[in-house]
Amino acid sequence: MHSISNTNTQNSQNCTQHSKIKIISWNARNVLDKKRDLEAIFSHELNDIDILMVQETRLKNSQTFSMKGYKAIRKDNDYYIGLRGLLILVKEHIPYEICLEDIGTEELEIQIITIRLPIGPVYIVNLYASHSNININQFTKLYQFLNNKHYIIAGDHNAHDTIWSQALPNHRGNQLKSKFEEHNIVILNDGTPTRVNLPNERKTSPDISLCSESLANLITWEVTKDPIRSDHYPILMELAIPFYSSISSTRKWVTKNANWDGYSNYIHQQMTEHPVQVDISNVEQQYDKLIATIHQSANLNIPPVKTRRTTWSKSTPWWNDECKRSLEARRNALRKYNDTGLLEDYRLYAEADENYKALTTQSGRDSWREYCSNMSTRDAQSTIIWHMIRKYGANKAKTGNHFLDPIQNPEICQAVLDKISHTHENIPPCPQPMMIRPFEAVTLRDLEASIQTANKSSAPGDDGIDYRMIEHLPVSAKALIVQIFNICLQHSRPMEQW
């Protein structure tokens, strides 16, 4: 390990060194409903978490989810829409790649990313196994893919065995135990319950954490004390491998030294081997796959930029001492219930949980009202206020749009402006409908023309893909980009990443 660290130091002299990677796995049971709680915990307690793996996100395609300082990689369940789904949040300064291996099913959801460490790539596997009958061969397919790799698997397996749980073994638990032995998979659980069970129920640990033998002696595992309003506790794992964080610059590759033929051919080959059909229901996923393919090709054919870390803040202006006291009261109630298991103590815990939710919700509203009251009509001239109107004005669950278009909804937007502006000041009107031109489909020729006239030296966006990389894409990839553009324009639904 020492020699590996020294080698990495020579290649990362301008970067920040970290002694370990902190990973959390958590079944959120609706992550959007608990976002405020998650932000508070991350801001004030678990502020050094590098990777968060979430199961049962219950996010719909029309809903957005983001956390400041983190990149969000989603895998919504298109079959059980709004019921299941996976999410991985990766800290901004940690480079990662999305694994495109198609392993999971609707019942066994699997999401994989890789992070590069001094020992080589480490596969981070986020997993949710439903209560439905799942063929054990589906798990075997995952284990065979991970054979001879460094990996961490974590998530809600809905499996029980006395090796990792206090619950009685079930059929899936017996099957998985045999598979773990067959594939030399190390179980990290120590028997601590991972779920808040009802009174008179046996304590269970359906959330299982696993790793390769190569990482077994480098990982610590523990169950955190706060379920964050879920009925599953977050699992904290610390991987004791030093690594260097990257810079916040969006430029990731030195394109002037690129192997453009290899870059273009690799992408074309991947698209030929894995043809896609894009529509409004899967446009986000297909866009992510395209970006991941471009990143893979860039890593193979373009030298990387040496980078430096930027510190990100995750402020929660609504958090106050009253919220902190309410959180502590909820935790004390849960601690007492775990000690006694009595129905009355469970009722008191549920009551404290509801009180905390109501208090933080009201605190968030008060903070928002204060923010609005401090605005003036000068702010209405900027893009900030229109962004806030679009963000908070649309009922995403009903409209299916990420944003509320002020041109299409002038009455709603004007009402919001009236609310947040001082009544004695002149309020600028919403744009008139005649200012917008009819939708016109983008063509491949339009894209090529835009690329040719673009400033090739301008900085790329968050995905690190600059104009030269777009210019050298194969025609098949450019055609897919055009198709994605037109779907977004037709449905007035921009990519969440945009």
TrEMBL record:
Residue span(s) of domain Endonuclease/exonuclease/phosphatase: 122-235
Top-level lineage group: Eukaryota
Keyword field: Nucleotidyltransferase, RNA-directed DNA polymerase, Transferase
UniProt-recorded Gene Ontology molecular function terms: RNA-directed DNA polymerase activity
Record Pfam families: Exo_endo_phos_2
The keyword Nucleotidyltransferase is assigned to this record: yes
Record carries keyword Disulfide bond: no
Name of the protein this chain belongs to: Putative RNA-directed DNA polymerase from transposon BS
Species whose genome carries this gene: Lygus hesperus (Western plant bug)
